[in-house]
Amino acid sequence: MKDYHINIFASVEDAGYVADVPDLACCSAFGETPEEALNELLIAKAAWLATAAAEGRPIPLPAFRPAIYQVA
Length: 72
What we know:
This protein is 29% helix and 19% strand. By secondary structure, it is an alpha+beta fold. It has a single domain, classed as Double Stranded RNA Binding Domain, CATH 3.30.160.250. The model has no long low-confidence stretch (mean pLDDT 92). Strand 1 (7-11) and strand 2 form a beta hairpin. It is flat, with a radius of gyration of 13 Å. Strands 1-2-3 form a 3-stranded antiparallel sheet, covered by helices on one side. The protein has one helix at 34-54, and strands at 7-11, 16-20, 28-31.
């Protein structure tokens, strides 16, 4: 199984970086550096998946593909 796509982008408004997983609703994290945002997101992703499993909620399969990787 492939893993979930992760976006990391600079947030001028927050003076740091935000990372998110598009396939997991509201799964995001903040860090002062891209590496910190990624590390925090990996923790958030694990918590998101564990909570969904514990509550019996469906866990979406990784499906997001950025347009840059789409073949015409």
